[in-house]
Structure formats: structure tokens, C-alpha cells
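Aim 2 progress. For Phospholipid-transporting ATPase, the working sequence is reproduced below.
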Amino acid sequence: MLPLVAVLTIIAIKDGLEDYSKYKMDKQINNLLTKVYSRKEKKYIDECWKNVNVGDFIRLSRNEIIPADMVLLYSSDLDGICYIETAGLDGETNLKQRQVVRGYSEQVSEIDPEKFSSRIECESPNNDLSCFRGFVEHSNKDRVGLSKENLLLRGCTVRNTEAVVGIVVYAGHETKAMLNNSGPHYKRSKLERKVNTDILWCVVLLIFMCLTGAIGHGIWLSRYSEVPFFTIPEPDGKSIPPALAGFNMFWTMIILLQVLIPISLYVSIEIVKLGQIYLIQNDIDFYHEKTDSTIQCRALNIAEDLGQIQYIFSDKTGTLTENKMVFRRCSIAGQEYCHEENARRLESYQEVDSDDEDSAYHQCGSSMHMSKWRGQDCRAVNEPLNRKSLNLLSGSHSALGREDGAGDVPPSGHVAFSSPIETDVVPDAQLLKKFSQISSHSYDQSEASSKLSLETMYITDFFLALAICNTVVVSVPNQPRQKMRLSSLGRMPIKSLEEIRQMFQRLSVRRLSSSPLPSVKESSSESPSSFVSKLSIFRVKMASPALDGTAQRAAEPHNADSPENSQVPQELDMVNVAAGCERNSATSSIELSPLPKLCYEAESPDEAALVHAARAYRCILQSRSPDQVTVDFAGLGSLTFQLLHILPFDSVRKRMSVVVRHPVSNKVVVYTKGADSVMMDLLRTASEVDTNNSEMEQKKIKERTQKHLDDYARRGLRTLCIAKKAMSDAEYAEWLNHHFLAETSIDNREELLLESAIRLETELTLLGATGIEDRLQEGVPDTIQALRKAGIKIWMLTGDKRETAVNIAYACKLLEPDDRIFTLKSQNKDACALVMSKILEGIQKNTCKKQPSQKLGNVSASLSTQSPGFSAGLVIDGRTLEHVLHGSLQNVFLELTEKCRAVVCCRATPLQKSVLVRLVRSKLKAMTLAVGDGANDVSMIQVADTGVGISGQEGMQAVMASDFAVSQFRHLRKLLLVHGHWCYTRLTNMVLYFFYKNVAYVNLLFWYQFFCGFSGTSMTDYWILILFNLLFTSVPPIIYGVLDKDVSAEVLLQLPQLYMMSQKSVAYLPSTFWITLLDAFYQSIVCFFVPYFTYYGSDIDIFSFGNPINTAALFIILFHLLIECKSVTWIHTVVIVGSILFYFVFTLAFGATCKTHSPSSNPYWIMEKHMTDPVFYLVCLLTTCVALLPRYLLRVLQGTLFPSPVLRAKHLDRLTPEEQREAIKRWRDDCVVNCRVEFQATSGSSSSATGSASEEESIASVLPTSKTPLQACSRDGLVEDTSFLSDIRMSPGTQMA
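Predicted C-alpha cells for this construct:
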């Protein structure tokens, strides 16, 4: 029982220390102080977080941590805005806006909790961070809807706001942050599952040995005709029957032989894994200097799984690419502007070291080569990502170490998406020339030149959309995290609350009565502009635009519904707007003061890239508030737009819109940006255009823009369409009426808001498109090539469009120029099944002529290699994935993917990513690894066997959900090929050695039972028996598992094929386990019977007989380890020699001091006598040699006659550098020859299911594309291989070969 107690004690101490550290952290968080309103003392008092309850009023100051989920009722910001930093929840350091509840934002003074009489009703506690439903019901029964914009979440930090007050709605374990903290996600490694199975076999073996002992003891007793003299009778004088004695002996044997179950193996495995993790974390090659970060091993129990990965599922943006969005090209009004000077700058660009950037002069905006366009820039570097996240339960521990939540302000330079490569944009000369005409061209003199005026209007609106269609926060660098504000002169007085109440009461009555939605005339007896004014005031918007001193209104507000105005085309009206603005601000534009230093904090790098691109053309976003946004436009002065609505981006609409009131025309304008796949369908049709000229022009612009978009996609650029829509006040009032009903609805609020947004985003006018480059990370192509040579299949799962995804796949060498690409695109399940079956037939026709020839030992044959004459890749979109993931098509799909060297899934949702990973993991029984950098990758990271997070620019959610976190995708190469291989081989060899050691030693006791009547007697003292595994032979296998190195890191990196040895579990096959046990049985027989026949017929006592057996067993077990070691270091030598010396010292001391009164089993002076006996040394030497000779000869023959790839690679380490290079070259040449095997033989471990394919019409297309990487999957370059798809109707727009 002592070994078991020792093991359990170590585990208990380890778990106890972990629990105590968590307890201290929890206590520290629970005792943080915050200001809570006390109704007894009538003031805010300091209270611990653990005492905060639902309904408490909390007052927070700048830089304080939010202690509970609370609804925002007051903000010191004049616009009712509170800025928060959500780094504690998702790792993002950019600021987020939260809005005071409607009806409370116009308060001049701080809210008085004593006067608060409203009732708040909200949904039950849940873990959805992106959604919050509820309402505030006032005493007069009026209701105001609540959304996530009104909720401050626990763990976030208040920034940019002097004071905020909120009421707690969720506290303690009911907060969203706590509900999202489900504890550590425990994953069991594949090796651990195998070990558990083999331990069960050891249990079976133990039971068999104990049954043998019990039966043998019963038979031995039954052979005595009389009661043996050594049998102790029962109190009644009767003796125990042989059957009962055998039953009792069974349990005695269980106690004697229980060492066969390697309980200490689990502790040894944990120690070895800690040592392996230590070596991984201290590998200098994983250090990334730019981010000052290294690898994080967040899961300690699956390090060996890194050596068995078969599938890698990778995100694209931020994982394979840098997620540094660089503005490259744009198309405006059908005219493309290539920005060649900017492209040349990017080619020669070198990132400045972060140390130099901190000490250098920081500029904000665009660094341009033209002095008159040069702006001031506040370049900033990313915040170092290696700072420890102290978040455990509250979502952020950044408050720890502060008193009362106070803390330091973050450095101003650390702003996301603000590296110089993103902010510095060189304008296109041609576009710049046209842009300058906006201020110099006189519209009065060029009324005949309508085409030029129209193009100028397009350019103006295009850059205005880039500047304002976003949620970018503008801050001042010399005052960190401070919002940039401009003085507004034209604020309208706030309407009375009674007027607001009456208006909302009308809306509520209509909604509750379920009557049809009222028309504009029914909603108000006043004019539409007055109605809109009231609604805008209710949303704390101003009825008229706030004007800067440098920009005046062109005309007084007029009725947009008048007959005169209704006849004016919208395009011409906007031209007049631009002209009027230019006339009124031409003078002021000349006397512009120097630009303030501005920093842009965006929620995504795409937004930041577009804002910086607009800034490069002097369309500068100056300030943003909840009700207005100010843009300094070159030549037009400062324009302040009244911000009416922001319709944020979502995965359903795939677009974002802002609704503003133009400061000159006073018209409502909608600016929209989004994916071309949805935007092109929202454009105005021919019947809606006023004139024939406009109709033709719009059609030409759309066609030319589509060609530019296709070209951008072929170049691997991320594309966005920019559009606008001008609305009359009547149209806007009608839409606003519907939208407010949706906003104030409690049930189905999200669905109603979605319908409202879709209703607005129609009949758009296309302005242009942008192409943004997301450059590949350093070393991605080489890493992917190495991983593919290692037999790992790589799938790219991305939300981007097909063309962009495919061309990025070509750029990173996921797809090769000679690959035949099949694009699977279908509208229904039956058509999808038909197309997949046809693809399989076509692949089989191309590969059936090759003859399969692969052996397990041939490490050159890869799971992802195909015959040289044929190589296939599969591209599938998100819509088709919905059909493919259906149960009846899963097996066919997996069979198809196994025959393709790469799979690219585009337009995939986060849920589809996780379902794909789970499908491959469960159906193919394959080891999977998912790697991503954003919150949309969390689900697949958690589903995969091993999850890797990239600490990029999309926050730290992926890192926090991952098992391993790296800063670059290229680090996967060494992590898998080197450390994965080492961890797996080390741990498997150690586990097998543990099984061998225990079985070999326990069998010595088992063989002795045949000579002692199966009485359960031991020929060794029990203390030595107990300490043999606990002390004498415990440390060497641990050192062996941590430090053994079969092949050097350099050779493993140069020969990725070696990875397949661990991938296929060659070191730990079932046969290997049983051969190890057989070897242990053989060595135990030799170790027992050599001393037995040596001392046969002598009169030595039992311990004198057992001592040479025990000593020989020690030598055999330790020297067996030396034979298995691939690299013997001085540490190995010290540990093994130390173990032997410790054994002799202990036995000598034990024999000299421990004396019993039983002469037949007295250990006294046993070792001392044997140390003077030459026979003892001869027995130990002969026993060790005979026992180890077969294994030693096997290793010698294996290394000389039939060496494994690992042994061949180990030999390379002994060569000189030149010889090593030549040998590796020859090895690679051999690999090329050996790779000429049939792909069908190497792929496919899953059973294929034949799906029922109907002959229904299909829009699916199977498109093997052209061989040029940058022209694959283009609309004009699609090449159809119809040799095996003659019965499938092709999708329109494709060319038939």
C-alpha cells in the first residue's frame, strides 16, 4: 500500500497547491472595492465585489474594472457615451462604445438613485456576450428597449469617461463573464487512451497470475493426505479446506503482485510532460521579437498529441496572413486606380523595430511623398502580447495590484491596427489629380460637362463613405484614450420629456394593438421633416446638423417632397450639393489650420485601412460622437454629418451601413459597404433610373467594377463594394417608424431589426470597390510544404470569397500550379451527391492505371501525396457545406476529401468550421489540429484534438481557448515536426519501459511461488520490494522521457517525412506492447533461474537467495534503459550510476541496522556477506548478460541490416556538415522516387457510403481550373473538365473546354 499512498499523496499535494492558488486569486478578486450606493447612508460607499447584488447602483471612475453586469444610466460624457476596453473578455485593446439608456442621456447632473422609480425587466442570465434583451418600464408604464449597447459587462475597463453610474442586473456567478468561464476544457491525449487500455490488459494479466496462484495453492494443499504441520487450525480445531485456502490465497496474491499495475506511471507521465512543456516554452526559436511574445503551453496533458497530427484546419485571415490590411487598389465609377507608387513602397518596406518606434517621432495618418499632402501621423506599435493574463473568474485581473480599481493609463502608442505599413498610403497620381479638381473646378462653368461632374460626385461620395461608414474611434495621442471632439455650434434644444412620452405612447399603442403599420401621414399631422425631427430627438440626435465655423449650410432646409424638388434626379442633386459646398467653403479651405494629431482605434483592420486610405487623400475623419461625425474634406472644408443610424455588420447581411444627414443638402444619405456577393444584388435596376444616359452609365459602371473585383480576387485581395442611397424625408420617416417599432420590441427583436436593415439597404447606387491586401505571414509557404511532406493534410476554412481563398491557397503553396481544382457548388442535396460521385469517378479514372505499393516502413509515402500524373484539390463554399454536412452525404464527402491533397472551404461560418473538424475527427478517427486567431475560430479550436491560437490582431479569444498559443503560423513547423516528434517518442518509450519494468520485476515473485507452495511468500524483504519501484528505478525513466533525443532538431526540420513515424504510432503499436511484455517475461525467467540453479542444493536462507535476484534485476532494468536510450548524456549517466549506488548504500545500511527475530527471514548482514562472495558478482554479471543479450542483438541487427528511417536519420547527425548535406540530398531524391505510389493506397481509412444521387437538374459546377496561380477560378479563366461530367448541366458564365 505504500507506493499507492505515495502516489496519491503526490497527486493530492499537486492538486491542493493548484486549488490553493485559485482560492487566493478568487479571494483577491472578491475583495476588490467598488463604489456602491447605500440607501442607509444616502451616499456611495466602498463595498467588496462579493457583496454586490442585483439592483445596486454602482459608480465607476476612469480605468476602473466593472464588478458586475450593469445597465448604463449615466455617463459624464456629454453625448451619453461610455468607452470600455474589453481586453479582459476577448483580449481586444481597442475601445468599444456603450450608450446610456434612452431617456437618461440628456441628464445634466448625475442620476439620483433615490429618485429612480423605474422597473427593469431582462432575460435570464446566459453566456451570450453579443446579445442582451430587456426593457425599462417607467412609472407611467412607458417602456424603453435595452440592448447590448446599454450593458457594461463584468471584467471590462472603463476608459475615456470620468464617471459612470449603472444599476446591476447580473451579479456574481450569473454575470456573462462567469457563465462563459466553464473552467478548463480537459482533453485526453491519444496516448493516454492507449495507456488506459494497456493497463486493463495488465489487470487481466494480474488476475490470471493470481488465479494461477490460488489454484496452485489449493492443489498443493490437497496433495497432503493429512493436515500439514504448518497449517494453523481454526479456533474450533478444524482446518481450512483447500478450496477456501485457495480463495484466500487469491487476495494474498493480489496484494503481493499488485506492483504489476503501474500506478506510479501516471505520476511519472505528469512529471515528464511538465519537463517537455518546459523545454518547449524555453525554445528560443518560438520567440517573436516584434510582438515580444513566445509560445504558451496552456494544456499540459496533450503535448504528445503534437506528434500524431493527421489533419490541420487553418483559418486564413490573421493565421496564414498577417491581418495587417494594406490599401492596394480601388475602383471608382468604373475607373480603376492601381496605386503603383504605394505598391512599390510596400515591396521595399521594412517594419521599424518596436523599440525604435517608441523613441521615434510618431505621425498619424498617411506618410506621403508630396509635401502639400503630408499629414501628421501618430504611428503606433501593437501592445506586447506576452503580458500575463490574470483573468481567472472576473474576466480581467488588470485591477489586481490597484487600489479601488485605479491603474495606469495604457501607453498611447499601443493602438491596434496602426503599424506604419497599414497607416502609410501613397495616393495614386491619377486619382489625386481628379481629387484636386473638387476644390479647383468650378461647377458653374462646367454644367455642360455632366460626365466630369458625375465622376467628381462619385469620387467625393466614395471617400466620404470610406471615412464615415465605420465605427472608428478618434483619439488624441498626447492624451491617451481621449476622444477627439469638435465644438458644435448648431445644437437644437432638447425637446421636452412629455413630448417624447406622447410620441412613444402612440408607437406602443399601435404595436400592441397589432394594427397595420401606420403611414407617414397617420403618424403625425405635421410635415415628415418635423416627424423625423421628433424621432431624432428621441434618439438624442439633432434635428439640424451641427456646423463648424469653416463649413456653412448652402441653403435653408426645405421640403423635400415639393413638386420642384421631386423632379430633380438624385445624382444631379448631389452634384449641386457638392458644388454648393465647394462655393461656400473654398475660401476657408485655403486657410485650414494644421491638422491635429489623431489616432484611429478600429474594431477591425479593414476599417482602419479604409480610414487611413481616405486620410491619404485629405478626407480626414476628425471626430465621432453618437450623434455626429466630422470629416475634413480637401477643398470642401470641415463637414459635420448628423449621424442618424449605424446598422452594424453581421454575417447574414454581410454589409454595414450608416445613415447620415448631409450638412449641405440636409438630405438623408445611406452609405453602405459590404461583400460584392450581396451588394451587386442590391443595386438599382434599369427601371428605377431616371434617364437613358444614367441607365447606360450605371450598367457600364457595374460591369467594369465587377471585372475589377474579379481581378482583385485573382490577386488575393480582400474586396469590398461601396454604395450609397439618397432618401427623402418622407421615405426616411416611413422607414424610421418601422425601425423604432423593431428597436422597442422585446420579442424577436433581432429578426425585426434585420428585416428593417434589409428594407433600408435597397436601390443602392454603386460608387466603387476597394482591394485590400492581407499579406502572408513570414514562412507560411515553407511551413505548409514541410507539413504536407510530413503526411499532414491541411484544410483552409475561411469566410472570404472563393477567388480570394483559392489564390491565397496558391500563394501559400497549399495548392500547386499543376493541381486540378474541383469547385463543389450546389443548390440542393441531391445535386451535391451527384456531383461528388462524378468527381470520385473522375479521380479514380485518373489514378486507376497506377499500381499501389506502400509499406508502413516507407516513410516517404505520405497521406497527402498523389501520383505524379494527377493531383487534385477541392474548393467548396458555405452554402454547399450545409448539404454536405447532412448525414447521408458525410461519408461520400470524406471519401472525396481523402483523395484530394488540399481542401479549401470558403464562406464558411464558425459553426460549419467546428462541425467539419468534429466530422473528420469522429468519422475518420484522425488526429486533428485547429489553428486560428479570432473569436470566430474558438469553436473549432475547442473541438479539435489540439487547438492552437495565433496571438494576432483580432484579440486573444482564440489564444484563451487554445491548448497552445504561438505568435506566427511558421512556428507550427518546429512545434509539430520537432517537439511533437520528440514528445511522442519520448513518452511512448517511457511508457513501454514502465510496463516492461513492472512486469519483469513482478514475475520474479510469481516464479518463486512455484517453489513455495503458492503461499504468497516473497524472497525479498518487503521494504526493499516496496522501494524498488518507488526509489531505485523511478528517476531514470523520467530523465529518459524528458531528455532522450532520437534525431536532432536540424535533421527533423530538413526531413519532415520522419514525422510520419510518430504520426502512425510506429513506436507504440499493439504488437510493440506485447513484444515488450514477452521480453519482460523472458528477462524475469533468466533473472530468477540463473541464481536458482547457481544456488540449487545449497543451504542459503530465503533472503540470501533473493538478494542476488534483486540485485541482478536492478542491473538488468537499468542497463535495458541504456540500450533503449538514443542519446546518453551526462545526466543519464549520473542518474543511473546514482540509482545503483543508492541501492547498495541502502541495502548495506538496511542489512546492518534492521534485525528481526525470525532466523529464516533475517535481512541482517545479507548484502555485506554477498559483497565478499565472488559467486555473487558472477551471478549478477551472468544474469544481466544473458537477459539483455537478445534485445541487444536485435538492436544491433536492426541498426545494421534493416535500419528504420529514424536510425538512418540519427546516423546523419554523426556526419560532417558537408557529408550531412549530401546525405540529406540523396534522401530527398529517394523520397521523390518512393513517392511514385498510388494515391488511393495511401488515402482512405474510412468506409465509403454510396449516396443516392438523383438525376435532378444541378447548378453545381466541377471546375478544374487553369494552372496559373494568379488566374485560378476567375470568371474569364474557368476551364471545365467535362470528360466525366457530361450529364451535369454547367453553371452559367463558364467556358467549356
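The chain is about 45% helix and 15% strand. This observation will guide construct design in the next reporting period.
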